[in-house]
Amino acid sequence: MDLPGPSPLYYHIPVIPDSVLQSQLSARMRNPALIDQGYTNLCGMEVCAMKMAKYDPSGYRSFVTTLNNNSNATYNRYKLKVSKRIAKLDRNFFSKGKLPETDWLLLASMRNKCNYILPYGGRMSNWYEKLAGSNYPSEVRRTLRLMGFEKTQDNMSGFWPIRKPSSETLRNLDSAFAQGNTPIILINTKMYKKGKFSLLSNHFAIYNGHLSIDEENGKVTFNIWTFGYGNGKTITCSMDAFRDNYFGSIVVKNPAGKQ
């Protein structure tokens, strides 16, 4: 059942000037990795938006343009509305989040659709944003399904690392990527950053190839699409660090005729 999000009030005029909107959309149609969550917890919605822009750039443009102009839009079975909390850019978390206007409009509205108790947007504090903006594998799966994307593999866990041999896991991801499919991965940033392990540091990203495995020294290198890196972020870490901080993947099937 496609339940609505929590916000009862919706905005009915364009949120973003068309010249700004179309410029940002054009850049993301050329390079979906530019979709940017900024300083928010919207990574789960970000990877779904990247899939739309990658596999259906014209559909992505039409969807976001309609969302901006009409306050609601539909993509396949995915229906989205812009709440007043999100539309008032001068009175919500937009400035703190430091992300482009187009990405705020889309990602914040997507997040708000998933929330049935805590509304997203508005004058949120940082701790509230972390709570209301947190993403879960089930929400990513549901969003992708409503958008019309199919899966070829899915072993993503929200709480427990997969703990299979790193080289085996990465070769499987790389094989799926080479076939034109898109592996969405869930990792903990402790994989490549110092600090204590915390589930709050779990992060959705998109595997982007460039795999190198150094068996002799026990290291792996690969690239991901993530916020703030238009060319992707290259991660180099030990095999143990990858295994202990990898929570699985959802491999999105390459639609027929799409590259």
Keywords:
259 residues, alpha+beta, seven-stranded antiparallel sheet, 9 strands, 38% helix, 19% strand, disordered N terminus
The overall pLDDT average reads 91
Supply the helix-strand structural class: alpha+beta
Q: CA-to-CA gap between the ends? A: 32 Å
For the sheet with most strands, the description reads: 7 strands, antiparallel
Strand content: 15-25%
Uncertain ranges: 1-8
Domain unit count: 2
Structure commentary:
The chain has 259 residues and is an alpha+beta fold. The chain is 38% helix and 19% strand. It has 10 helices and 9 strands. The protein has helices at residues 18-30, 43-55, 57-70, 84-87, 94-97, 101-114, 126-132, 137-147, 166-178, 239-244, and strands at residues 72-75, 78-81, 151-154, 182-188, 202-207, 212-214, 219-225, 233-238, 246-252. Strands 3, 4, 5, 6, 7, 8 and 9 form a 7-stranded antiparallel β-sheet that branches. Helix 1 runs antiparallel to helix 3, helix 2 crosses helix 3 and helix 2 runs parallel beside helix 8. The longest helix is centred in the first third of the chain and has 14 residues, at 57-70.
Give the helices and strands, then pairings:
Elements: H1 18-30, H2 43-55, H3 57-70, E1 72-75, E2 78-81, H4 84-87, H5 94-97, H6 101-114, H7 126-132, H8 137-147, E3 151-154, H9 166-178, E4 182-188, E5 202-207, E6 212-214, E7 219-225, E8 233-238, H10 239-244, E9 246-252
Antiparallel strand pairs: 1-2, 3-9, 4-5, 4-9, 5-7, 6-7, 7-8
